[in-house]
Amino acid sequence: AFLTPRGGEPMAPNNPKRHPGRGGAGLKEGVLVGEVAINEYAAFLLDRSVTSVLRAGVQPTALVRIENSVFHDTSEDRNAMFRSIKDKTGSFQLFAQHDCTAEDMGPSLFPVDQVHRIAVLDIRLCNTDRHVGNILLRKSGSDLSLIPIDHGYALPGEVGEAMFDWLSWPAAKKPFSDEMRREILAVDPDRVERLLTARIPLRTECLTTLRICTVLLQTGAEAGLTAFDIGMLMTREDLIDGQSTSVLEDLVAEAKLKAAESGLPWMWILRTLIHAKCHSLAGSTLKPRTEPRTPETSLPNSPLSCSLVSCDQVSDRSLLDSPLFSVQGLTRMCILQNENLCFAYLDDTAPLTPVLPRLEAAASEAERALKDGSFDFIEDGLGGTYFLKNSRCARVAVFKPRATDFAGEALTPCLNEVAAFLLDKTSGKSLSAGVSPAVLVRASGFSADHRRLHFEAEDVCFSLVEQNEPPGASEDRIGSFQLLAPSDCTAEDISPDRFPVDQVHRIAALDIRLCNANRHMGSVLVRTSGGVTLLPVDHGDSLGALAEFTLDWLSWPAAMEPFSEAMRREILAIDPERSELLLRKTLPLSSKSLATLRLGTALLQRGVEAGLSPFDIGSLMVRPDPTTRSSLEVWSDGDVAWADVDQSIRVRCLEVARGHLKGSGAFIALMPRAPSAPDDDEPPELSLPCLADEAQLVVDSCDLLAARNPGLSLSRLSA
C-alpha cells in the first residue's frame, strides 16, 4: 500500500521533496493544496458506485490518520537524532501489482472496453493529469489489464484544462457499446453527490465540475459520440493556434453570460448548449457517401416539386435508406397533382413506395361512386366517419372530416391519423407497424345530405374554416383520407396466442410513441391469408389527454416478451427533434400534441434502454386504479423542466427493471432512483456494492502494518 498525506504534496508547507509553498493553488489549475488525498478517495468512491460495465478498477482507498516520527516538518531538522511524532491524515491505497505502464506498450493492444472505462472515469472527474505513466498494465497469459492510478489532480474547482493521453489511442475512437451507453445514461448525478458529500469534504465548486462533466458524458453518449469526441471538447488546443480555452470552458462561460442576461439558471442553459454541441458534432462527423443510396422502388411517374426544409445537423442514426446523397437537410416531397386532386405528402427517411398513386386511384373511384351516393356513414362523435366505396360497392378508403365540439374548439382526429401514418412510415423496417397511407384533403361541396364529395388541391399549410364563420358559408370540409386495409376479422375474433411477437411489439411501440388512448381489440385488424398479419387502425385518440388509456395488448402474451435487438436499435435510433420537425412542417398540430409525442418517445426509449418489455412500459401509462394518476400523467405536468422529466422517466424505468432483477445478482444496489427530500435527522442512503469487502482489505493492511511496526499508529478516519 502507499499513503498520500495531506500537507505533503507539492506547494504544501511540509512538502518533503523541497517543493514547499504556502498552500492555496496547487500544481494543477483548480486543485488546491490538501485536496489530492481527498480526490484519491473520491475517485475510488465514484468508480465503485457504478456497475462492472463502467468500473475502471481504481484500487481500494480509505482516509486514515497515521502517526510517526519519520514524517517531514519544515520546523524540524531532518538529520536530528530524535524527532517528534507527527500526526498525518491522508489517503491509504492498496498497491496494484503490475508488469509495466502504458508507455511501455503499444496502445493498439489495449482492450477497447477497458480504455472506455478509464475514459469515462476521467471525463466524469475532469482529470487534469491522465498521462501514460499513471496507467499500469498487468499481464496474465494472453489477457491484458489496465489499472488507473493517481487521481489526485481531478475534480478541479472549475472546468479547466483536462489532460487525456488516451485520446491518441485507437480504442478511444471506437463507439461505446450499447451496454456501456445504457450504464452511462443511468448515472444519477444527484445520488452520486449525496454519496460523496456524506463521506468527504468536497468543495461545492468541485461538485459542480463533477455534474457538468457527467452531463457532457451522458449527452455525448446519447448523441453517439466516442470517448475521443467527448474528450476533445474538454482539452485545450495548442496555444500557438490562439485557443487558450477548451470547448467546454467556452460553453460554461457562454451559459453564465446568458444567465446573467436572462435571469435563468446557468446550469439549465449549459445543458441546452451541451446538447446542441454534441448533436452538432455527431452530425458533422458523418462522412459523405461514395454513391447515393437507392430506394427500394422507383418514384411514381408524376410531376413532383421538391424543396429543402431547413434542419440542423441530422445524425446518421436517424437517417435510414433513402435516395439522399448527403444529410444536409430533409427532402420534402410536396404537391402531387392531377386534375381534381392534390395530396401533400412528406417522406424524409423511409424507402419510397408508390402510395400516392394508390391514394389517387382510390379517390378517383370514390368520386365516381359518390355521384350515386355510394358511401357508408358512421356517426362517430361529432365529426363522423365516411367509408368511401368504389363502383363495385367495395370499401376503398376512410374519410374523417375535421370536427368541432360544442364550444367550437377544434378536434384533431383527422390530424392524428395522418401523424400516425407519417411517424410509422418514417420508422425503420423493424419498427413499422403498417399504418395505412393517409393524407389531408379538402372536400369541397360537402353538402348536408352527404350526397356529394369532391376533392380539390390542398397545400400542407392549409387554412382552416374560421371559428366565427356563419354556418353554411362554406361547404368545404378538411379531413384525413386513408386507404382501407383489407382484412378478414379483428383482434377480438382470434386468440391473442396466435399473434406474432414482432407485430405486437411494433403496434405497442407505435401506441407508446403516440400516447394512443384507445387501442382496443376492434382497432387491430387481422389478415389470415399466408399467416396472421396485424394491421393497426383508428389513431384519432392519439397525442391528446393523458388520463384514461385503453391498451388491450397489455393482456397479450407477446407483450410480455422482450424487444428484439433489431427493434431495440431502431427504437434507440429515433430522433425526437426530427420527428417533431416532420410533423410541424406537415400538420398544424398544437404544441401540446408535440409535447405529448416527445413524452411518449422518451418513455419508449428510456424503457428500452432499461430492458423493459412492452407490457412494462405500457403499465406506466395506465392508471393503477381510477383515482390514482399514472406515471405518465405525473410526468406531463407542465411546470417541470424537460431535462428533469427525462431523468425521472429514466429513473422510473430503471426502478421497474430493478424489480425484475432483484435477487438475481444482475443488479447492483446503487442505481438511480426517484430523488426524495432527505430527512434532516437522517444521513442520506449510501449503498456501495462490494465496498465492504474492499474496505476490509484496507483495514487488514493497516492492521498488518501496525503489527510489523510497533511504533506505527494507524486508525480509520470517519467521514
TrEMBL record:
Span list, region Disordered: 1-25
Presence of keyword ATP-binding: yes
Residues annotated as domain PI3K/PI4K catalytic: 1-267
Pfam annotation, one family: PI3_PI4_kinase
A molecular-function term among this protein's GO annotations: ATP binding
Keywords: ATP-binding, Kinase, Nucleotide-binding, Transferase
Record InterPro entries: P4KG1-8, PI3/4_kinase_cat_dom
Source superkingdom: Eukaryota
Family: Belongs to the PI3/PI4-kinase family. Type II PI4K subfamily.
PANTHER family xref list: PHOSPHATIDYLINOSITOL 3-KINASE-RELATED PROTEIN KINASE, PHOSPHATIDYLINOSITOL 4-KINASE GAMMA
Name by which UniProt lists this protein: PI3K/PI4K catalytic domain-containing protein
